[in-house]
Amino acid sequence: MDFVSIRIITGDVARLVNFYERATGMPATWSNEDFAEIRTVSGTLAIGSTRTVPLFAPGSARPADNRSVILEFLVDDVDGVHEHLTGFVEDFVNEPTTMPWGNRALLFRDPDGNLVNFFTPVTPAAMEKFAR
Prior knowledge:
The chain folds into two domains: about 1-60, Signal recognition particle alu RNA binding heterodimer, srp9/1; about 65-130, 2,3-Dihydroxybiphenyl 1,2-Dioxygenase, domain 1 (Roll). A hairpin with a 4-residue loop joins strand 3 (about 35-40) and strand 4 (about 45-50). The strands form two sheets. Strands 1-4-3-2 form a four-stranded mixed sheet, covered by helices on one side. It has a four-stranded mixed sheet with strand order 5-8-7-6. The longest helix has 12 residues, at about 15-25. The protein is of the alpha/beta class and about 130 residues long. It has helices at about 15-25, 55, 80-85, 125-130, and strands spanning about 5-10, 30, 35-40, 45-50, 70-75, 90-100, 105-110, 115-120. The protein is globular and about 45 Å long.
C-alpha cells in the first residue's frame, strides 16, 4: 500500500486552488471545474467540489468542517515562507516556532478553515528523518 493523496472538499474549488498554488508555489493540474490536484514529489493535494461528493456517497463529506486534520508541507526555510505568506494568509495560528520534536513550524488556516503546517527540520535528528 502507498499513501498518495489527500482530498479537500470545498464549495469554491477555484478559490482554494488559487490559495494553495500561491502558498506552495506549485501549479495545479485541473481535470475539470470540479477537481484539481497539486502534485509534489511525495504526495498530492486534491481539491474537489461539493458536487463530487454524491459520486462517493451523498452527504459523506462537508466542506469547511475539518477540525482534526493538519495538512503538512516540508519547506526549505519556514521563516522565509512566513515572510512570503504575510499579507496573504489571513489566519496565522502561530508564528514560526521550534517544536520539541525538532521541526520549526508555521501553522495557519486556509480559506476553508483547514489547518496547514509548513515546517523545516532544524535539529540533527529531524534533519536526518527528512533527508532528501
